[in-house]
Design brief:
Number of strands: 9
Bound molecules: adenosine-5'-diphosphate
Number of helices: 6
Structural class: alpha+beta
Strand content: 15-25%
Distance between the termini: 53 Å
């Protein structure tokens, strides 16, 4: 929907000012429908563990009451659903916090080597648990970026956890970090941090939708690994706030590479 307003200066025909104001109403309508989709999705995501828990409670109060083995099983299942809901709420909070600050780029100078190592260390135990090798090839003195250490570490942890969760058993997940080539997508001095896995890959048509909230290629697989469907949306918003960009490349049967490009901070002038 576009409305056009024409302004003219009638008394000075030679000096006519023509201003066209395009009021595009589509974004507002789309934004409204996205918000209601989001609320519907969140409600659905919360309702399914609650439905499961209420079923387990009923079973525990009924037939499983006097069966210690069944009780242990149902309590374990209930615990898993509670973890699922807790992860969902914590991802929703992270998303809303990072979105609220999106317009203000962080100003703190940040040591990227330390930030990447922090993320890799956090992902090590998951890699061990899932039997995956985690390899790092990080340039020793990466340029300084401007950013929030915990936010950027969170973005990298999300990429690492996905690479670990969605890749082949005994596969290797590789993290590389280096100065990006001049023709990088940011078209300015940047650092590129890539997370590569040996998974089954992602069909090309799915790639553009991966950073949408709650979009999953394989719902049951995401559920099995404890995914909330918000991980890549969080990564995207963190990178947007840092004026960075995420690229996703994938080859079916070979694996995927998620690359975060971050602008390098301007050198500090000494007074
Ligand atoms: P989730 O919590 O489901 O992992 P994400 O937003 O992190 O949510 O990812 C969205 C979906 O993208 C995942 O459900 C999965 O289908 C797909 N995906 C993400 N990373 C990978 C990867 N490294 N390999 C294959 N598929 C992936």
């Amino acid at each position: 929907l576009v409305s056009v307003k024409t302004l003219t200066a009638p008394d000075q025909a030679s000096d006519t000012t023509l201003a066209l104001t395009f009021i595009d109403q589509t974004p507002l309508r789309v934004a409204k429908s996205m918000r209601s989709d989001f609320v519907a999705n969140v409600s659905h995501e919360i309702r399914s563990p609650l439905t499961a828990i209420s079923g387990f409670v009923e079973t525990l109060q009924g037939e499983a009451q006097n069966d210690p083995e069944a009780r242990a099983l149902f309590l374990d299942l209930m615990g898993k659903e509670v973890v699922r809901m807790t992860n969902l709420v914590s991802d929703l909070l992270s998303l809303s916090k990072v979105e609220a600050k999106e317009s203000r780029a962080p100003k703190n100078r940040l040591n990227l080597n330390q930030t990447i190592l922090q993320a890799v260390e956090s992902a090590t135990s998951l890699a061990r648990k899932r039997g995956k090798n985690l390899e790092c090839q990080i340039e020793p003195s990466l340029p300084t970026a401007l950013g929030k250490r915990d936010h950027l570490a969170r973005a990298l942890i999300n990429l690492l956890e996905n690479a670990i969760n969605y890749s082949r058993e005994d596969g290797t997940v590789t993290v590389t970090a280096q100065v990006a080539p001049a023709d990088n997508p940011l078209k300015r001095d940047a650092v590129m941090i890539a997370v590569r896995d040996q998974g089954e890959g992602i069909p090309a048509r799915e790639i553009p939708r991966l950073t949408e909230r709650f979009y999953r290629v394989d719902k049951s697989r995401s559920r099995n690994v404890g995914g909330t469907g918000l991980g890549l949306a969080i990564v995207k918003h963190i990178l947007v706030r840092h004026r960075g960009i995420l690229t996703i490349e994938s080859t079916l049967g070979e694996g995927s590479t998620f690359t975060a490009y971050l602008p390098v901070a301007a050198p500090q002038h000494k007074n």
